[in-house]
Amino acid sequence: MNKISYRVLMIFLLLVSVSQISAQTKGSVAGKLVDVDNGEPLIYANVAIDGTAIGTVTNDEGEYRIANLEAGNYILVFSYLSYKTQHHDITIRTGQETSLDGSLSMESIMGEEIVVTGMLRGQSAAINQQIKSNTIVSVVSKDKILELPDQNAAETVARLPGVSIIRDGGEGSKVVLRGMAPRLNSITIDGERIPATDAQDRSVDLSMFSTDALSGIEYYKSLRPDMDADAIGGQINFTSRKASGGFHGNARVQTGYNDLRKEFGQYKGALLLENRFFNDKLGLIVGGSVQRANRSSEGYTANWSTEMGVDADGNQIFTVNTFNVTDEDETRYRYNANLTADYELSNGEIMLTSNFGQTNRHDIRRRRRYRVSSAYQEYDLRERESRNVVFTNRLSGIHHLFNQTTIDWAVSYATTTNKRPFDHRMRFREIGAFNVNPERTLNNVVNGAKDRVDETWLKDVYFDTYDVSDDNLTLMINITQPFRLADNITGLIKGGGKYRQKTRDYNVDRIWTEHFVAQEILAVGREDPDWDVYYPREWILMSSFIGSHNNTDFGRFFESPYYLGPGPGEVNGPHLDTDKMEKFRNDYADYYVVYPLMDASDYTAGEDVTAGYLMTELNFADRVNLLAGVRYEETKNDYQSIFGTPRVDEDGNVINSTGLVDTVGSRVHDQWLPMFHLKFNLTRWADLRLAATKSLSRPNFFSLVPWERINPGEGIAERGEPNLKQMTAWNYDVILSFYEKFGLFTIGGFYKNIDNIDYTLTSRVFDRDSPINGLNLTRPVNAEMTSTILGFEIDLQSNFRFLPSPLDGIVISANYTHLKSETFYPISLIETLDVFPWTSTVVDTIRSGRMPGQVDDLLNLSIGYEKKGFSARISLIYQGSSLFASGETDAGSLAQSVGITPDLDQIVGASSRWDLSINQYITKKFQVYLNINNLTNTKETSYLAGSFNILPTSLFVYGMTADIGISYKF
């Protein structure tokens, strides 16, 4: 047993001993608060002993418990913002627990009868949780989740202040919290961390989670000592709930339309059932959903060169290096299932929650590539299938001892898998493909292409598979002991420990035909009789693989008329055929050989995190709340990998296989993390919160493992860095809140100091004794200077019940965030002497810039109207520009960070996205709805930072989507 475990155990024993001594003179009161209209639990309602600072708030099930009460008579007060306050006389008896449930009704305005609606209830629930929390948190309630037109959980989270979104296929996938990239944040279900779903880093794809089964979403912006510390940006927590009494459920069915592909046939179905058994002791919730969505896209990417230097005025001259026109057909199938079982004990409860999410993706990409710097044009066809799975299981218990001490524990197992059964790519090339064009703008490159289909030949074929898995096994225990120093001074002491064992396996394989497979096939006369062959040059021509697929509408949303081809003119097909590509693989499988560079990036890594904490919470006269404590986390990493790489020539052929070493290693890192929170209740309608917390973030496994990949033909080398340090951050928050029955207004600011933030550095190696001499080496490194991020947030949630009908049905939510960050990128510059012998040296230096993914300005606006069963909501999400975080990388390669100079940084353009939701109740249980996403067909763009938005690096469109459905509650 290590020292921290021993100390935590001693704390447990001490607290239990104290509770046993005082148990004989104490009692408690417990119960549940619900909405009188629909029986739904009231979350974070205030429950207090009148005239004292003794009290609590209800949990996610509307349940409360106040322990450590002296025997006697009290007045118990139930209060909930926008609801009528209730007072109840209770009697506390020694050694017993008094039971008292309550049902509250919404407070009427000007004597009018109140009809509680979904928007109003959802807003009220979120506000009450935020103002009663002992930390800084933003909330999306269950009712609001059901009202929003969002496709998945990522898009719902992005409506909270301080959250920007990263999209994939036109829908939200990952979130950036307060300017912190997805890998620097924590995603949890009921407080248990979800393993990474990304093959490269520690980030989690939230699109895999259906919002149908969620009880709520919480964004913790400042951490407590009893929370995992590896969350510099914050923690997103999905909450599940217990079943309520009686058999009931909800069914939803919808169909949809994709405007980009002009396709009907999208669908989604969801079913949720719940009941309680054995005198309400056992509760069960079972749910599931299935969805089919078209996530196709059209667009282009460009890469710019500065090889022409500067003009007469000293301005950098940018010319096109490559220009890619892309058409991608993608269909996603999403499956979700959840199970929640709870059993009530005489002194607590035991709960099991399981959540399953799976996304299957099938996409076909057709791409035309103008590789002007190399003087050739390419066409490539890629077909791939992938399967991403998240499966979480958590068994937990909470036990109340001696009417005052509470012990809670949990055992959880979570796993994610990212499998790609196949990724098949065929590439064709035309050499000498351009007329001379020194300007090399996008249009000039397209117009200067020769487009000789009859001289475009088969270059090579790749077939990749990969399997990445991430498993977490977690054990956790906490003990809480309340105390009372006086009627107006109460508090608690809480301590606990947690152990998490993580295992990650990364396995990528590739076979390919090598570059000149046509020569080998033709040399032995094995060509297909249906092929078009140019024998003098031993070419299998691209025309041999053309099928019947056309996309005549391609590019209709582009401002410039770019065409997929193949060939000259305004042509968009017929295109390369996937069946013919697959036939080639089946007929010529013996020509595929193992690609030697892939296995070098395979690894198995483990991570053991042992944590312990101690904290206290003090309440002074219901006016001041102090939460303070410290957390300790010890991290042990171990890995198995291959170091070194086979050398290959410019055509990818193996030169030698020496230098490969099986590597086993480990390292240990520990950290003390103090955390402080202070809340002042200035009046009954305003409070001020302050927080100072220390958090951390661990490096990506792919960065830590000592792998190496060398490809002289492309002039590159890549490797991991086992000595990479973990990041630490001090986080400072202040927030002022004003609230009453018509809503909530908050304004706040935050500041973060981050040490050892890591990025990928690319530099040229000049060392004649090195096997990578003359190559560009990419590797992860820690920034030497402290990075900072500063921001402020404004949040308004309001209703207009004070206005006369029909204006009293208006509900509005709006938040704005402004961010500014500075970090220091390690870069390497090549300096060459301008005299003989013109030797070159590498100068390592740094430059400042904002953090990747950090958006300067964020605006969320939602205006809704709800009256007599009808509701409508229009929503806007605006995101300012940001520094491109990373792109899709090749298997076994590192993601790039930034350019060598600020002018070469890639900037993601600002965007505004509008969504619309309309709902109508036909009866109290039956509802029809219409959701329209991306009303204005917002384009996703990026450009070079030094180009003032005139040199685009990407533009993609996904089109508007519409879904119409029915919902039935029973």
Detailed description of the structure:
The chain is mostly beta strands. The chain folds into 2 domains: 114 residues, Immunoglobulin-like; 757 residues, Maltoporin, Chain A. It has 8 helices and 52 strands. It has a 22-stranded antiparallel barrel, surrounded by 4 helices. The longest helix has 20 residues.
Helix content: under 10%
Count of individual helical segments: 8
CATH homologous superfamily caption of the largest domain: TonB-dependent receptor, beta-barrel domain
Describe the main β-sheet briefly: 22 strands, antiparallel, barrel
**How many whole angstroms does the radius of gyration measure?**
30 Å
CATH hierarchy: architecture of the largest domain:
Beta Barrel
The shape is: globular
What is the end-to-end distance?
53 Å
Low-pLDDT stretches are none
Overall pLDDT score: 88
The count of strands amounts to: 52
Q: How many separate structural domains? A: 2
Report the structural category: mainly beta
Name of the CATH first level of the largest domain: Mainly Beta
- CATH-derived topology of the largest domain: Maltoporin, Chain A
Strand content: over 45%
